[in-house]
Design a protein that fits this description.
- The protein is 30% helix and 19% strand.
- It has one domain: 3-Layer(aba) Sandwich (Rossmann fold).
- The protein starts with a strand and ends in a 34-residue tail after the last strand.
- It contains five helices and nine strands.
- Helix 3 links the parallel strand 4 and strand 5.
- The protein is of the alpha/beta class.
Length: 233
């Protein structure tokens, strides 16, 4: 499968690219140049033919919702609204079958920790710029999916955690579990328009349940991403 991964200068996209390149043909992109053994195309994700050229011929796009904290708040918001819109527009024009948006479980952080929050619950975004960026990115993706221009998958990721980390939060997500979830999302049989999944690892006091479709049983059959977090001793 030919896969485009955005924000290639960021840690998580780099780790995803390295792992997924074993089974997929990876193309990377970012607004700044990076050094990589994989195919890389620098792009500002503007509203022009260059973005169409970037996505042409790929089977799926993995668009990272994280932003560079060193950028200004306006630049961060611009990337998650205007640039995400441009990327989706080009993808729909070039008939890219699937668009995976890597969002964050911080959107659900407003609920009490003792509640079993699933994909059926509404996000509670705060005014924190990074959280708001994820929310606005989801909003743009949702509007495209409603018009059936492209199949969209939201993966709301937990707090990225390394195996050697001494402090484990209740919403932790180990990198290998994140890779598994993204890999599953590339080929899973889904609804065909918009699917939302909460992704976190199996940790003590796990805060979020995974694999609970956000629609009701009367609307669509239950779909399974196939994600199974690794059980750690």
């Amino acid at each position: 499968m030919r896969v485009l991964i955005t924000s290639a200068a960021s840690d998580l996209p780099q780790e995803l690219a390295a792992a997924l390149s074993n089974n997929h043909e990876i193309r990377l992109t970012d607004k700044q140049d990076i050094s990589s053994d994989l195919e890389f195309v620098r792009s500002d994700l503007g509203h022009g033919p260059e973005t169409n050229d970037l996505v042409r011929g790929v089977d799926a796009i993995i668009h990272y919702g994280g932003v560079d904290p060193s950028d200004s708040a306006s630049s961060q918001l611009d990337f998650q609204m205007r640039c995400t819109y441009n990327l989706l527009w080009a993808a729909s024009e070039e008939s890219v079958p699937r668009f995976i948006y890597l969002s964050s479980l911080t959107l659900m952080g407003g609920y009490d920790e003792d509640l079993a929050v699933t994909e059926r619950w509404k996000p509670l975004p705060t005014t924190d710029t990074q959280v708001l960026c994820y929310h606005l990115g989801e909003f743009v993706c949702r509007e495209f999916s409603r018009e059936a221009k492209i199949q969209v998958v939201f993966l709301r990721l937990g707090e990225i955690t390394r195996d050697h980390s001494e402090t484990i939060s209740s919403s932790a997500l180990y990198t290998d579990d994140a890779v598994q979830a993204v890999d599953k999302a590339l080929s899973a049989e889904l609804s065909g328009w918009l699917d939302i999944f909460h992704i976190q690892s199996a940790v003590p006091d796990q805060r979020y349940l995974s694999g609970q479709p956000w629609w009701t049983a009367d609307e669509l059959p239950s779909l399974d991403l196939g994600y199974r977090p690794r059980i750690r001793s």
